[in-house]
Amino acid sequence: MQTTRAPSALNDKILLIAPIVLGIALIAAAFWGATKFIEPPPPSTITIAAATKGSPYYLLAERYQAFLAKNGVTLNIRETGGSFENLKLLGDTASGVSLGFVQGGLASGPAAVGLQSLGRVMYEPLWVFHNANVKIDRIADLKGKRILVGPAGGGTNALAMRLLESNDVTAANSTFITMELPDYVAALDSGQADAGFLVLAASAKTVQRLFDSSNVKLLNVAQAGAYGQRFPFLSPLELKQGVMNFARNLPTTDTQLVATKAVVAIREDLHPALANLMTQALIAVHAEPAVNAKGEAAVFSKSGEFPIQIDPELSLAPEARRVYRSGPPFLQRYVPFGVATLIDRLIVLAIPLLGVLLPIVRFAPMLYTWQVRSRLLRYYKALKKVEKGFDPKAGQVALAERLAEVDAIEEAVNGVPVPLGFTNQLYDLRQHVEVVRRRLLASKYV
Questions:
Q1: Taking each helix axis from N to C terminus, what angle separates 272-285 and 337-388, rounded to the nearest 10 degrees?
Q2: Which value, to the nearest 10 degrees, does the dihedral of the CA atoms of residues 289, 293, 298, 301 take?
Q3: Helices marked H in 305-422
Q4: Whole-number mean pLDDT of the chain?
Q5: Is 16 exposed, middle or buried (0-12, 13-18, 19+ CB in 10 A)?
Q6: β-strand pairing of 255-267 with 234-239
Q7: Residue 128 to residue 194: CA distance in whole angstroms
Q8: Strands 74-78, 115-131: pairing kind
Q9: pLDDT number for residue 445
Q10: Which residue has the higher pLDDT, 163 or 335?
């Protein structure tokens, strides 16, 4: 006759360990999944491509550098030859340059692939000076003249050639002279050239020297508004009478100019947290115009005008858009940048973990109760099987086998660990084991 066995301790251990293993597995899976979406920590050092020391780009980069330093980030400033070199460095992943200044009108085509804008940060006016003895009223009047168009491959050259072409002034009907900007003054003074284009800040020494020359005159770009409509990266500007030199009243009348707006361009792979912080730097630095030692602001500098988030050439970086719309991230308003980014990363990890842990915490008591109860119920099942399977007419051998099974169940029950809250159920089980034993023993008299 087949005997009934008491539930094994191994089954108890499996029932106890299996949910724990499952919970650990779910937490590990959630953690692994979260790591696929979390950004690595931002680097503590980045490099910006500027221009030569003392240039407007470089001076602006130094102000950004000071802001980032307060937030624990080092901004290295790379000296370059200007916008074209900056574009080249930004396009070279091995250059180590993550952001740079670029003159308006140059950030287009293949050179701008993979770049985004943090905003336009300063005017770069286009100056058209001409020999005072040569009558020139519009750029179109330069046809047939000897024109200084800046160094080949430079930002001045690119803009000059574009505007000249739009006025039908070409190399076929005029003479283009590619000369370094500091040499413009001598060339115009001596009559070697009739006119010259420059893209420089108003404070540049070359611009000051040209204003000081009695043989040179600044062209009033009467069509400045039209150029702004035709070329979105250009903006009309007005140079007020006397602003360059009050004592000599230079210029002698209000003069119309056009200007590009320099952009701080970044590589698309710049860490989002650093793009965010750099945008904050732009806003903070340009909240007030820079002033010289005499307390004088730059000619075209207006408080709060820059940075400009509307960019006619590059798409605005998503992080920059968030800063312009909502300001600094919530955490960075109260804790340092490094701490805020760390908390952000931990939150990304915590969300899926909480999604797993909360259900586990909620159902753990229920699961534990079910485990303990099911452990006791399995002994009841064994008892019921012993009682139901006993035939009083089977004889003393069968009775002994069944009593041995009851003894085994009783021994197993005595070794069952249960919490204090379930002690009453354990004692009930022990009583019921004794009840079954008595019923078996009573069958000897049937």
A1: 150
A2: 10
A3: 318-326, 337-388, 396-414
A4: 85
A5: middle
A6: antiparallel
A7: 11
A8: unpaired
A9: 46
A10: 163
